[in-house]
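Human: Here is a favour to ask of a fellow structure person. Comparing notes only helps if you start from a blank page. Give me a protein, with the fold worked out from its sequence. Please set it down just below, with no commentary around it:

Assistant:
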Amino acid sequence: MYRFVLHHRKRPIVTTCAIAALLVLDAGVLARRASAQNPSFAKQPTVIEYDVDPAWPQVPEYLETKGWVSGVAVDDHDHVWLFKKCDDAVQVYTSDGKFVRSWGQGMFVNPHQLRIDHDGNVWVADFGQHVVEKFTPEGELLQVLGVRGEAGTDNAHFDKPTDMAITPSGDVFVTDGYGNRRVVHFDAQGNFVKAWGTYGSEPGQFVLPHAIVTDGKGRLYVADRNSGRIQVFDEEGNVLDVWSGVIMPWGLTITDDGDLWVCGSSPHWWLRNGAYPEFKDQMFMRFDRSGRVRQVWQIPLGDIGSDKDHPDTSHLRPGEAVGVHAIDVDSAGNLYVGEIYSERAQKFTPVTTRDDE
């Protein structure tokens, strides 16, 4: 009788789950390799971000901090000029925030905008006194356009002017905006040249001309704020272009290379359901001369309570704003913004790289 002994060789049993796990591991390795070669972010950033500088400006303790900052301008020395609704209405700071000087006690009623001309003189629009005035950098009065304390629509008067643009030859173009709806042109000696504009929504008409700048090459850009338009004119008042539906433009400035920076909010109807929602966000936009948008940057809308005319600014954080009103840029590309309801000016620094990346 034969006995048969069967010897069974043990073989590993590979299950479906194990195969799936191996495939997942392989896929993970391949994904990591692909991610390293093709990351989902730009190694060379294509977007410029802006960080607020919370230490700017360094306001002396003896200066009042309350009050609208309705005007901002940067001079050839990168000094930043603020036009503020307070006793020390004109304040000057360096680009790194150091206080330089102030003046203007008792000189203004409703400060609205400030510009620096090609000779370094300071121009201001005071809509409370219906005038545009020219000063030396130290505050000596050189020229007055309009009649102080008198509103009007003739060649010698304004009705609440909002801004002025000064050409390299010294001509002055004034947006006579809150009371009238026009642009008024004066020569370098202050003589009336012409005026154009009426109330309306057609090209060349205005709903509220709030700001004006010149590119120094014969083109004028007017922020027709309440209609959400920027209108472009030549110095004769002819309409060259209209950019609408892109931003509610509050403040304008021209860079050295001819680009236009605008501060304001995204477009909306100025009157809706019986109310006037002035803004729903806060944004900056950069255009080239053709109207092409080159940059957009948005900052959070701050909390100042329910009464914007008596704001509680204690809850505001750096980088927030309520009522961005004026904007300018220095030689390093830093943006300076004047705010009315949040009652301050802020500096925003361009960022293209970060240490944690």
